[in-house]
Design brief:
This protein is an alpha+beta fold. It contains four helices and eight strands, in the order H-E-E-H-E-H-E-H-E-E-E-E. The strands form three sheets. A four-stranded antiparallel β-sheet has the order 3-4-8-5. Strand 6 (81-85) and strand 7 form a beta hairpin. The N and C termini lie far apart (41 Å).
Length: 114
């Protein structure tokens, strides 16, 4: 009986609530001029995601966390970059995976909630 009550608690309004695994997949939003322009024009939002996450996991995580309907997901592996601070200090920026999520028309995600 414990399993049924746990499943019943997760289902609210015929949608499942976000769990810890969903918050592990979506790391943070990518805030750049291009990503902000895409979010204002065509309801596309860019997130930095876990490297091992696939499109289905990203779609489910975004829809559960933000309560929106996801139409499409595009992923990009951003490679690491070499950097230098003057001539003495050299290093690399880490690589990461980026997901561009397209929402159903008319839906928005408020990334800058007060």
């Amino acid at each position: 009986m414990a399993k049924k009550t746990k499943v019943a608690e997760e289902v609210v309004n015929n949608e499942k609530k976000a769990n810890i695994h969903d918050f592990d997949i979506i790391i943070e939003p990518v805030i750049t001029e291009k990503s902000m322009a895409q979010s204002q024009e065509g309801s596309k939002y860019t997130f930095k995601v876990k490297k091992t996450a696939n499109k289905t996991e990203i779609r489910n995580a975004v829809s559960k966390i933000f309560g929106v309907h996801v139409v499409g997901v595009q992923t990009v592996n951003v490679m690491s970059k070499n950097i230098s601070r003057g001539s003495r200090y050299k290093g690399t920026l880490p690589s990461y995976k980026k997901a561009i999520v397209t929402l159903k028309e008319g839906e928005v995600i408020n990334l800058f909630a007060e």
